[in-house]
Amino acid sequence: MPKTLKNIGWQPQSGFERSSSRRIRQIGDGLVLGFSLVELLVVISITSLLLGILLPALSRSRAVAKEAVCQNRLRQWGLAFEAYSSENNGFYPHIDGRDRTEINPQSPEEIADYYYGWVDVLPSFMNLKPWRDYELYGKPGNDTIFQCPSAKILKDANYNYPYERVGYFSYAMNSCLGLDENCWPPYHPYIDPTGGTNNMPSFLNIALIRHPSRVILLYDQLLDPRLGYNGNRLNRSAGRYCGAYPREFSARHRKSKNGLGGSILFCDCHVEWKKSVWKEDWPDDLEVPPRNDVNWFPYP
């Protein structure tokens, strides 16, 4: 006997049950439960609307989390800078590494690059191995403290260096900290108040920094060659060196109301988000900031 609502003894007894009865369809000799096409379309529309609301919020949450990780990594580097300077008569490590001098260092500058770059001498203070100890084609990625978690190398970009082989740097030390003669003790030895001299191959004595809270130490470095010089010119060496200038600053962290910006570690070890480090009166092709710039030079 064919199954029907009557002979199976089913009777709707409430508004809910009467509503539910519309979902029962008789097909052939059996009964099946289901939804109408209109009902399915309503459910799909509501789900799509909720996803449209939630996905951007989740994306912003991930971006905020990555910015927090970036700033925490910069603070850890700041502590390592302080630890290094306390063990080396108040001197910072060198701004550059073997990315500048790969083999056979000869001059004091090359010796500094080869042996005393910040990416090589600071990791030991965090129980990590130096950059130079990583194999070629196996340099640290953005899951390590060496890189910003939001940094992305552009595989189709026209870089002027083999980033797959030698790696890249999404953090850079302020190169202006090593431009003055006071940063080169072999030429102008630092006189230790307790007697003697310090003949390290380089660098800046932090006692000379007049306004540590204003002087940039480490910052988010550009990896997109198209956005060099504050977005004004191509910079094919983006990410190549661990020491750089304002033309390499990267705005990769988004603030909801202020747009994109970058994270900066200052010489007093505090970290800030900045929309840009480029000054309005700078020319589009500026290579090195003016000598009197208080954000880039330690004693303008």
Descriptive account of the structure:
This protein has 300 residues and is an alpha+beta fold. The chain has a domain at 69-274. The chain is 26% helix and 13% strand. The protein has 6 helices and 10 strands. The protein has helices spanning 15-21, 37-87, 108-116, 118-121, 163-166, 228-231; strands spanning 24-27, 30-33, 171-174, 190-191, 197-198, 216-220, 243-244, 253-255, 259-266, 271-274. Strands 3, 6, 7, 8, 9 and 10 form a 6-stranded mixed beta sheet that branches. Strand 1 and strand 2 (30-33) form a beta hairpin. Mean pLDDT is 82; it is low at 16-22 and 186-202.
Global mean pLDDT: 82
- Largest sheet geometry: 6 strands, mixed
Write down how many β-strands occur, each being a DSSP E stretch of 2 or more residues: 10
Order of helices and strands: HEEHHHHEEEEHEEEE
Give helix % range. Answer: 25-40%
Segments where pLDDT lies below 50 for 5+ residues? 16-22, 186-202
Count the DSSP helices: 6
What structural class results from the helix and strand content?
Answer: alpha+beta
Overall 3D shape: elongated
N-C termini distance? 99 Å
Percent of sequence in beta strands = 5-15%
Q: Roughly how many Å is the radius of gyration?
A: 30 Å
Index terms:
300 residues; alpha+beta; six-stranded mixed β-sheet
Brief sketch in words of this structure:
The protein is α+β, with helices and mostly antiparallel strands and 300 residues long.
Q: What is the strand and helix layout of this fold?
A:
Elements: H1 15-21, E1 24-27, E2 30-33, H2 37-87, H3 108-116, H4 118-121, H5 163-166, E3 171-174, E4 190-191, E5 197-198, E6 216-220, H6 228-231, E7 243-244, E8 253-255, E9 259-266, E10 271-274
